[in-house]
Amino acid sequence: MASLLSAEQVEAYLDRISLPASARILLKEGPNGSQALEAVTILQQHHMAAVPFENLDLHYSSHRSLPQQTESVYDTVVRRQRGGTCPQVHQLFSHLLRAFGFSVYCTGARLNASASPVAKVDVDRSTIAYGPLIHVATLVEIQGRRHLVDTNLGPAGSPSPVPLQHDKPEVDIWPRRRRMIYDTLPGMSSSDGKWWRLQVQEPDHIWMDVCCFTETEWTPVDFEIMVSGIGQLGAGWFRSLVVCYRIILEDSSPVGYLLMLHDELRRYYKGRLTVVQKLYSEEERVTLLREDFGVNLSSQERKSISGTVGELKDADHDFYG
């Protein structure tokens, strides 16, 4: 499949994520360049630092939907300086990689509940409870090897390409480690159906399952059906909680992340996770989105959340609790 992005759109996209000139030169060498893996790593990390994983259109809009068309998502990410959800951003990011000659496709993935962006800070990491196919995994050929490149998984996702190699641990966001295992899924009837399972491990903790997928390519229609199904059956926390996430880069290296989870801001920095701010009003949340995530909501967008389950009100806070 050819990229749907023009040369001008590609340059504007790279400007949007502030990709260094040196990385742009490496990308132009293509998937077999001597530093192709480094190029895609830098691209992914700058993307994850600039383009947040967020579901704001489900709360701060009149249409309450997540458009999937490439031109629409491009307009949201590049021109409006916003982010998006995994079905939206993964497919757009795939076209960006194709513009540099990379062989790339997307497939459906399952998420483990313990690794959800809305999981509690003290979640039981040993629990493995995979849900339906509601996530997207982007698979990219880099120097002859297939890698998972996931820009929109949230806090448990890896900020660099993960080779599809069984049990090869590597440092992820220091001091966290990550690995891929190729194994069956607990609770499945099939004893020989294997999945690629991404796992992460914090110091002094066990490995935690994050997501799983096969290498079967999905088409855009498959993702439209997935998104439609989520809308018909219910999207769990997606329509009730406002979420925004991005990674933190220091000296061009990932050192942590920021996660706005409805009414609080969590910060993971060099192995330590803390709640750094509680939010008690829409004004506070809108200000945080602007200052910490670069998201500027219009006055009309801010009004759209009024009266919905996602709205923050002072009355929601128990000042005596």
TrEMBL record:
It holds the Pfam family Acetyltransf_2. SUPFAM superfamilies: Cysteine proteinases (SSF54001). The keyword Acyltransferase applies. Keywords: Acyltransferase, Transferase. InterPro entries: Arylamine_N-AcTrfase, Arylamine_NAT_domain_sf, Papain-like_cys_pep_sf. It comes from the Eukaryota. GO terms for molecular function: acetyltransferase activity. Belongs to the arylamine N-acetyltransferase family. This is Cysteine proteinase. The lineage of its organism: Eukaryota, Fungi, Dikarya, Ascomycota, Pezizomycotina.
